[in-house]
Amino acid sequence: MEKNSNIEMITGDPKKAINKLSLPIIASMLLIFANNIIDSIWVAGLGPDPLAALGYITPLFMVLVGIGNGIGAGGNSLISRYIGAENKSSANNAAIHNLILGIIISIFVAAILLIFLEPLLKLMGASSVLYYAIQYGQIIFAFSFAVLLPPIFGGAFRAEGDVKRATLPIAITAIINMFIDPIFIYVFGLGVAGAAWATIIAHFLSLAAMLYWMLIKRDTYLEYNRESFHNDLSMYKDILVVGIPASLEQLILSALTIVVNYMLTLVSGPIAVAVYTAGWRIITVGMLPAIGIGTASISVAGVAFGAGKYENLRVTARCAVKVALIASIIVCILLNVFANQIAFVFSYSESSAQLEPLITSFIQIMCLFILYVPFGASAANVFQGIGKGTISFGITAFREFILVLIFSYLLGFVFNMGEFGIYCGMLLGGGIGSLIGYAAIEWYISRLIKGAKNDNEAIAS
Questions:
Q1: What is the C-alpha separation between 278 and 54, in angstroms, rounded?
Q2: What is the dihedral of CA 113, 115, 121, 124, to 10 degrees?
Q3: Which residues are CB-neighbours of 188 under 8 A, at least 6 positions away?
Q4: Minimal CA–CA distance to 280: which of 343, 323, 203, 353?
Q5: First-to-last CA distance in the chain?
Q6: Is residue 25 over pLDDT 90?
Q7: pTM score, two decimals?
Q8: pLDDT tens-place string over residues 39-83
Q9: Is the pLDDT at 2 greater than 60, yes or no?
Q10: CB-based contact 151:72 (threshold 8 Å)
Q11: How far apart are CA 373 and CA 257, in angstroms?
């Protein structure tokens, strides 16, 4: 199989591959979430109600992002396994199937979200800020293909080790959105709707750049042309076998946010939701190093699995956890030290000043959550890389929908600890679940290594 420098990198030393792939992914993710935070900062200037409205839309938006990332992970897994097996023609074909599937899914998802937007918001308890939430949500979901397709196409770029093209357009989009947000919100006087328009316009630029590289310039390792395409339903299935569970993982996380919003509404009302919306975005930024390293491990694990190099698979999982944990400890310390300063940017206006001490306390408590992410994220992404998305989904579902919710409900309501109890429950359930997930991937890789060893002994005898 012909190789370029990117292919040589992802098929070589797993540690070097993870380090090289991780940094651009983390940088682009930081810009993306910084963009989301800046969205909240600008909207916070409109008052607590518009900010709370974003809190109710955020879980639905993250479902959208999760579907894009999930299908992208499915394409990444399949393509990288073909690259590991040195089967470029099938890798090309899988990349085109990934493109087609992304377009189909983006149309379907947009229709569903638009149809059920208002009932979902009411179900989530957003009645008091429904006007603002619908204003923002209708624009975002009407043009959701611009949000969905870049991470799907990015999965193919990461599979061939071209992490710059997977991340650069998305990073530039985030920067542009930061600058045009206040123009649409305040200069044009569009308010919450202006934040939505700025987000969509910026995402169009990312999509246009990727389509240009793939279909016009055509200088990628993977080839997107009619000659490389041979319709194969099994490829759609293989992408979805990883993509659907990976998407559902984000759906679970978003559903968890919806439930947490509802519980907070019961104990404290919209103010608690506004605090959670702002504070959780900061915590999410703190998770990015671990998530970025985990995302990089999908390609490396897929290549190792496709080549039958199971020891490299073990190195991939352990290296991802080690590097991510070191980074997460540093981030956790920084967030704790600078919690007051960070909280201020969400409470700079007179109408939102009351949120500052509440957001500060939230960050200082929930920054501990970041320490668990390296174990859960690395396990989930390695499982996805080897095509075992259902296992990853099962672990995530058990952690978030059983452990986190049970502990949050018990501490928040049964033990009458209110907001603090809900947050402690999230910490306790998330920590236990993440450690269980990492134990599962270590056990699974050990089985693969043992099975390969037995096969070799049987052949030798």
A1: 10
A2: -70
A3: 194
A4: 343
A5: 32
A6: no
A7: 0.78
A8: 777 887 888 888 888 878 877 887 788 888 889 889 999 999 999
A9: no
A10: yes
A11: 17
Helices 192-211 + 145-159 axis angle, to 10:
40
Residues 268-281, buried b or exposed e (16+ Cβ, 10 A)? bebbbbbbbbbbbb
Tokens 């579902």 sit on residue: 397
Could you say which DSSP state residue 87 is in?
A: -
- Report DSSP letters for 105-157, one per residue: HHHHHHHHHHHHHHHHHHHTT-GGGHHHHHHHHHHHHHTTHHHHHHHHHHHHH
3-state class (DSSP) for residue 76: helix
Q: Which of 65, 287, 297, 36 is nearest to 163 (CA)?
A: 297
Tell me if 404 sits within 8 A of 433, measured CB to CB: yes
Cα 54 to Cα 47: distance, rounded to the nearest angstrom: 12
In 314-401 the beta strands, taken as DSSP E runs, fall at none
Pair of tokens at residue 421: 């109890």
Say yes or no to pLDDT of 439 above 90.
yes
Q: Is the pLDDT of residue 1 over 60?
A: no
- Burial environment of residue 294 by CB neighbours within 10 A (0 to 12, 13 to 18, 19 or more): buried
Find, among 253, 295, 288, 289, the residue nearest to 384 by Cα: 295
DSSP 183: I
Task: Judge whether 138 and 114 are in contact, CB under 8 Å.
Answer: yes
Q: Are 295 and 381 in contact (CB under 8 A)?
A: yes
Specify whether the CB–CB gap between 283 and 365 falls below 8 A.
no
Record the tokens describing residue 149, joined without a space. 């397709």
pLDDT averaged over every residue in the chain: 87
From the list 320, 343, 287, 340, the residue with the least C-alpha distance to 62 is 287
- Give the DSSP letter of residue 402: I
Strands (E), 261-403: none
Which residues, at least 6 apart from 25, have a Cβ–Cβ distance to it below 8 Å? 158, 163, 166, 167, 292, 293, 295, 296
- Residue 371, amino acid: L
Query: Any residues with CB less than 8 A from the CB of 422 and at least 6 apart, and which?
Result: 260, 263, 264, 267, 408, 411, 412
The CA distance from 318 to 114, in Å, is: 42
Q: What is the pLDDT of residues 241-273, one digit of tens each?
A: 998 888 887 677 777 877 888 898 888 878 888
Structure tokens at 84: 């590991």
Cα-only R_g, the chain: 22
